[in-house]
Amino acid sequence: MNLKNLIRLLRPKHYLKNLLVFFPLLFSGLLFHQPYLTRAIFSFVVFSLVASSVYIINDLRDKEFDAKHPRKKNRPIASGAVSTGSAIAVLIALLAAATYIQFLVNWSPAPVALLVVYLLINTAYSFGLKNIPIVDVTILSVGFVIRVLYGGFSEGIEVSKWLYLAILAFSFYLGLGKRRNELLSHGAETRAVNKFYSHGFLDKNMYVFLGLTITYYSLWAIEPTQLHKSVYLSVPFVIAIVMAYSMAIETGDSDGDPVSVVLSKNYLMWLLGVYALLMFYLVYFL
């Protein structure tokens, strides 16, 4: 197994999702406090290792199914570029490394439990729960929330309830959007659960969660206990970002994967960059 196939097996581009572990730290105003930042960086590494483990488990489970998929057939395990034995060896190494680093950083019950829950529910997802409608989208969504909560517990920072609800609603929006575009692109040919969904159902519920996302984020931004009173100024940018994302999946030809959608649209990347800079200014300089 060469380095290129190893990198493809780990799917590092999806580590963008794991940046959510930094949210509690960024919004707390403690980014420049070395102990917190160190824990956040190691937490990102640990979650990335566990996430790659989940991808390997999924690819091992779906090897034969992926081989028939127009895009997934090129994945290392499905294509035969990486053997089953090699993939299992990498999987064990990743979990061992994640366990060791977590032990060094923070071995308290909450973050460890969240990692175990993330690993278990995603393994169950790979072994059949992904074929149950609603359950499949719920597991995808919970994965994003776990990242934020794990970051908070690992860093020793409380996560606002409104921020938790905003991330949860946005996660359902992303998950439903993913299923929506999969259904439009390939129907139930490449994902069995899509036979239970209709375009209308996914579309309507997707935009229900979009509205909830904006509502919960706005409530977080004006929360009386909010450390930085000016973050409400970021609400218009969040509205613009979710509208731009909706336009991207409505008019694009992707399968709705959030990372692929963002990386394929320059205007989305620019909006996210502006939002990041604005929040950095509002939290740390205003």
What does this structure look like?
With 286 residues, the chain is mostly helical. The protein has two domains: 1-159, Tetracycline Repressor, domain 2; 160-286. Helix content is 71%, strand content 0%. Helix 11 runs antiparallel to helix 13. The longest helix has 28 residues, at 34-61. It is globular and about 55 Å long. The model has no long low-confidence stretch (mean pLDDT 91).
Which percent range describes the beta-strand content? under 5%
What's the alpha carbon Rg, rounded to whole Å? 19 Å
Q: How many helices in DSSP terms? A: 13
Low-confidence stretches: none
Structural class: mainly alpha
Identify the CATH architecture of the largest domain.
Orthogonal Bundle
Shape designation: globular
CATH C-level class of the largest domain is: Mainly Alpha
N-to-C order of helices and strands: HHHHHHHHHHHHH
The number of domains is 2
